[in-house]
Amino acid sequence: MLPFVDERMRPVAASVEATWEAVHAAMTSPPSRRTERYARLVGARDGRPFAVAEADPPHRLVLVGEHRFSRYSLVFTVDELDPPTRFSGLSNFKQIFSNDAIISTTESVYHTLRVAMNG
């Protein structure tokens, strides 16, 4: 198991299903050119920063990644609250060199989720 780094939780004004679709699409869509360049630069496995390790729609998505400098996992959960939906992300990683980009990943996904949900 990788060391715990960060956990963030945010309410989302959307259904569990809509939230899941947006998170899943954001994290499994083809990487941008910028992301592809970064992945090549750091030697990410298979040229992608993340791979899906587990998916339990519409509640849980586990991603894993590895490159020359670290190994990491991201666990995204979507839970129904009364009334909003709760989106949370848990970051775990073992770094070889300093790399704090993973800590903000949940916030980046949340921002992408907000943009996707608002059209």
Summarize the topology.
Layout: E1 4-12, H1 16-28, H2 33-42, E2 51-56, E3 60-67, E4 70-80, E5 85-95, H3 105-117
Antiparallel strand pairs: 1-5, 2-3, 3-4, 4-5
Class by SSE composition? alpha+beta
- Report mean pLDDT, rounded to a whole number: 79
CATH class: Alpha Beta
What's the helix-strand series? EHHEEEEH
CATH topology: Alpha-D-Glucose-1,6-Bisphosphate, Chain A, domain 4
- Strand coverage percent: 35-45%
Tell me the count of domains. 1
Uncertain stretches: 97-103
DSSP summary, beta strand count: 5
Report the helical percentage. Answer: 25-40%
Strand order of the largest sheet: 1-5-4-3-2
Rounded to the nearest angstrom, the distance between the terminal CA atoms is 38 Å
Helical element count? 3
The name of the CATH superfamily reads START domain
For the biggest sheet, the summary is:
5 strands, antiparallel
The 3D shape can be described as globular
The CATH architecture comes to 2-Layer Sandwich
Rg over C-alpha atoms, rounded to the nearest angstrom? 14 Å
Which descriptors would you attach to this protein?
119 residues; 3 helices; alpha+beta; single chain; 5-stranded antiparallel β-sheet; Alpha-D-Glucose-1,6-Bisphosphate, Chain A, domain 4
